[in-house]
Amino acid sequence: MSLHDGAEPGGWGSAIDGALRQRIESHSFRQRRLVTPIDAAHVEIDGRRLTNFSSNDYLGLTHHPRVVSAFSHAAETCGVGAGAAALISGFTPAHASAERTIAGWKKCESAVLLSSGYAANLAAVQTLAAAGSIGGGAVAGDRSGGGAVRFLLDKLAHASLVDAVRSVAKPHGPVSYRVFPHNHLPKLARLLSEAPAGQLQVVISESIFSMDGDAADLAGLAELKRQHRFLLLLDEAHGTGVYGAGGAGLAAERGLGSLADVTVLTLSKAVGVAGGAICASARFCDAVVNFGRALIYSTNLPAAVAAGAVAAIGVMRDEPQRQQRVRQLAISARARLAAAGICLPPGDSPILPIPLPSESASLQAAVELESAGFLVTAIRPPTVPSGGSRLRITLSSEHTDSEVDALLAAVEQLQQPRSRGPAAGG
Ligand SMILES: Cc1ncc(COP(=O)(O)O)c(C=O)c1O
């Protein structure tokens, strides 16, 4: 691939070229491709039909007739855009109804919609930082000199959580953060036990980790909560829909629905539409509306999307066979990969990371799979830690048995899958 020739004013074109060249040389240059959706599990690229194993549409709801019809009906009545931020004039009955539905589904007091899952994580962290620094933290006043709020972030937490925490933390400021090795609860316990008195501790984790597909130790976190004082922010982006009765999430499935103080979910993955939501106490949701800059200064998601989300949550309740199907596919695919000597991180999620030795090997593997008729994306640093290049396969209830069989046969034929799991980065 060649870089652009045109000179940019002020000479910054060469700086961009330098940065892009470095990406190209390290096999980590990224480009969007034109992908035409055919249905929930198939796409067309360059005139070829491919089975899509790289979408997070776990339950096939992007194309479900009930969801599409609720979305279209609301678009016809409310228009296709919200027109303003929720605090200005962008909050409609469709948004209010979606927030009530989500709160009931997640069994929490209240929910707030955001324009994306990324924005939901940003707003949740901004609110916690503001509450800690303006409101004085969990314990009134901060006499410790260690700052008012400290975020404790799992090493493999999603970029949206990392960006959110980095954007509120300042050296010597009231907000700081530490990263703990992935799922390493003993280390987390040590960090909690050395926290200065009066400093609010906020532990951040995902229920199902987006790139490794493994689960947080929710029971362990529950035990830790009995010993230490902290708030838990749990991102259920990939647990929602796939786990729990009616798709309420992994915490609900484990009987720990009230473990997280703040749960964030995306409406863009199993729910099949777009947007995000923060689920918490009514008081916290009020605080999001007051301190969550990602909500305050951004146009609300379209009402049609909110209506689509309500319909999708109804489908999850009425068609539990979708969840059962994708989970059964995940269990059998994982067993077959293990039998072929390809080790995945533990778990039963439909996210299957196939470890590869290098960025170029993962790109080559994606090309091989595409020529065999499958869209599977190569995931490379910096999305994953250095040394963690992989293919990330995601299964959907809409995949047929023969499509999954054919994909796995093609994966088994790949030249260089590593037999050990991807670097956890911890
Ligand atoms: C764990 C996790 N959280 C948050 C997000 C952001 O969600 P959205 O795509 O809706 O912005 C993602 C998306 O990839 C994710 O995987």
Walk me through what this model shows.
The protein is α/β, with parallel strands linked by helices. Helix content is 39%, strand content 16%. The protein has a seven-stranded mixed sheet with strand order 4-10-9-8-7-5-6, with helices on both faces. Strands 1-2-3-12 form a four-stranded mixed sheet. A three-stranded antiparallel sheet has the order 11-14-13, covered by helices on one side. Strand 5, helix 5 and strand 6 form a beta-alpha-beta unit. Helix 2 runs antiparallel to helix 11, helix 4 crosses helix 9 and helix 12 packs parallel to helix 14. It is globular. The protein starts with 11 loop residues before the first helix and ends in a 13-residue tail after the last helix.
The helicity comes to 25-40%
Sheet with most strands: strand arrangement: 4-10-9-8-7-5-6
Largest sheet: 7 strands, mixed
Q: Could you give the order of the helices and strands?
A: HEEEHHEHEHEHEHEHEEHHHHEHEEEH
Instruction: Tell me which ligands are bound.
Output: pyridoxal-5'-phosphate
Structural class category: alpha/beta
Using the CA coordinates, give the radius of gyration: 22 Å
Could you give the count of β-strands? 14
What portion of the residues fall into strands of 2 or more residues? 15-25%
Terminus-to-terminus distance: 34 Å
User: Count the helices. How many?
Assistant: 14
Low-confidence stretches: 138-144, 420-426
Which geometry do the CA atoms define? globular
- Nearest-integer average pLDDT: 92
